[in-house]
Design brief:
six-stranded mixed sheet; 4 helices
């Protein structure tokens, strides 16, 4: 009996150890699975530098862009039709935003790893580049923001992500105009998703103060799901180190990520007043020296004004935008970049601008709306 007891004990020890290992592995797997559900793979809901390129600036102290705009073109500012917007409810400043800088490494993002059936294509047709899609990202966070989401404490977004037709016809070979022109809030497409300028509806730095998902996007009821800056979800592995086109501005010029000799994303110091430059980049399937815009970690993040002649952004708008009475993109005391976003106030302002003979989607219409405190952000 003693021999049998010792034999069983001897062989039971490894079994108990194996059980412990399996339990630990199971717990780790469950934790990893839960983490993947919080955000798309490789991204984070607590660090918005995840999945982004190498930086030449300190991402814990990014200069705040709030109020950096006007009606003249300057490096690091927005040349906004109508000037700095001032509409929208008061903004609740989140803890990652300071008086002059904000910390992307501690910014909270909306939870969720939601897949969408995204559709987007660019087709060369004569002298035009025709862009069409359904306005859906391949992946996003969960909107409306759940009350259980930590992001709910910081200006939660009640809007939903829905598809809508996007159709733009841009010049296939854009040319630089004699002088820069102002932008009206919506500046182009980033991988098929509307790209808005760096302001929210109140002239705040949208990337800093708005609650967005880990892809750096969120919805409104004017152009749907959109970005205000570079999204890690549009970057391929190659795009993290090589010059790559990630979108188009409304004047037809490309929007790119470009890098310095150290492999770091370009900074404002390398760009002109419209946040662009002329260099050799991939364009229409070959390396071409051409003017283009660049995405950066610094405000205004993308297009600051137009060097070409822009088309209307109406081809990106949701039909009857602003007529639903919703505050899509707003919540918790903050206008979430939603054009001063829905509701009777915006609708009345739009009707007044249209009564002046202005067409929605044109720079003139955007300027009119900006003057009434309802810019298309």
């Amino acid at each position: 009996m003693k021999l049998g007891f010792r034999a069983i004990s001897r062989y039971s020890r490894p079994v108990r150890g194996l059980v412990v290992v399996l339990v630990v592995a199971l717990v780790a797997a469950v934790a990893a699975s839960a983490k993947r559900m919080d955000a798309p793979r490789g991204l984070s809901t607590t660090d918005q530098t995840a999945g982004m390129p190498k930086a030449a600036i300190d991402l814990t102290a990014i200069p705040l862009g709030t109020g950096k705009g006007g009606t003249t073109a300057r490096v690091g500012y927005l040349d906004r039709c109508g000037g700095v917007p001032s509409g929208g409810p008061p903004v609740k400043i989140p803890p990652w935003v300071g008086s002059s800088t904000w910390n992307a490494t501690t910014k909270v993002a909306v939870e969720g790893d939601v897949s969408h059936t995204a559709s987007f294509k660019a087709v060369h047709s004569g002298s035009r580049e025709v862009l069409t899609g359904n306005g859906l990202p391949a992946v996003s966070g969960t909107f409306p923001v759940a009350s259980s989401d930590p992001a709910d404490a910081y200006n939660p977004d009640p809007g939903s992500i829905t598809s809508h037709t996007i159709s733009l016809s841009l010049p296939y070979n854009p040319t630089v105009a004699s002088h820069p022109s102002c932008e009206s809030g919506t500046v182009g497409l980033e991988n098929g998703i509307p790209l808005l300028d760096g302001f929210d509806a109140g002239g705040n730095d949208a990337s800093a103060v708005e609650v967005q998902d880990a892809c750096h996007g969120h919805p409104n009821d004017v152009v749907g799901y959109h970005y205000h800056s570079l999204s890690p979800c549009v970057l391929t592995t190659s795009a993290l180190t090589h010059a790559t086109q990630v979108g188009w501005a409304l004047d037809g010029f490309g929007i790119y990520v470009e890098y310095d000799a150290q492999g770091q994303l370009l900074t404002n110091s390398a760009l002109d007043v419209c946040h662009g430059r002329t260099s050799v980049v991939p364009w229409h399937g070959k390396m071409t020296r051409i003017y283009h815009y660049d995405m950066t970690f610094e405000f205004p993040y993308s297009v600051g004004c137009y060097r070409g002649t822009p088309v209307s952004f109406q081809g990106m708008m949701i039909p009857n935008a602003g007529s639903t009475g919703q505050q899509s993109g707003s919540g918790g005391g903050q206008q979430q970049g939603s054009s001063g976003s829905g509701g009777s106030g915006q609708q009345a302002a739009a009707q007044q601008c249209q009564a002046q003979g202005l067409t929605p989607g044109t720079p003139q219409f955007g300027q009119c709306m900006s003057g009434k405190g309802y810019p298309p952000d």
